[in-house]
What we know:
By secondary structure, the chain is α/β, with parallel strands linked by helices. It has helices spanning 11-21, 47-62, 96-107, 170-176, 178-190, and strands at residues 3-6, 27-30, 66-75, 82-83, 114-125, 128-140, 156-158.
Amino acid sequence: xxxxxxxxxxxxxxxxxxxxxxxxxxxxxxxxxxxxxxxxxxxxxxxxxxxxxxxxxxxxxxxxxxxxxxxxxxxxxxxxxxxxxxxxxxxxxxxxxxxxxxxxxxxxxxxxxxxxxxxxxxxxxxxxxxxxxxxxxxxxxxxxxxxxxxxxxxxxxxxxxxxxxxxxxxxxxxxxxxxxxxxxxxxxxxxx
Length: 192
């Protein structure tokens, strides 16, 4: 594979993905390179289902192998929420900050702060479909720290670290993150 289309318009995610696979000689295109692609509704109940749905659509409409992911923040004391609804936890068309503030409100007074980020990456090339999962365990802190990263990064403290995802340098974050771990599995697969 020389080119892969990332089924995303999220510039943060696109940049992160390009950085993670740069050494493979694979060009990462994105949905931004194909303006006729429609936004795929993430309406399935699992991260795997949503990742496969998006990758299938992009592959069918571009003819190029497609890569998609769905990520959820799963908080133990909230019974796994926001989970598959992480991007729209505070509602539709909300900002990252809106979601973080809702999470912090939901976590007020909770002593169990354990959480994990989980990503499922799907690669679809015609009738060949593969999925790769990555998990990063940690906890939700009570106030935002750091200005790097995106999403829930300012309140997620990965296990074994004193810095939030938003405080870590991108190289360190990518080496331990849920998405980084899933992509490492993808890279190992592509390198075969």
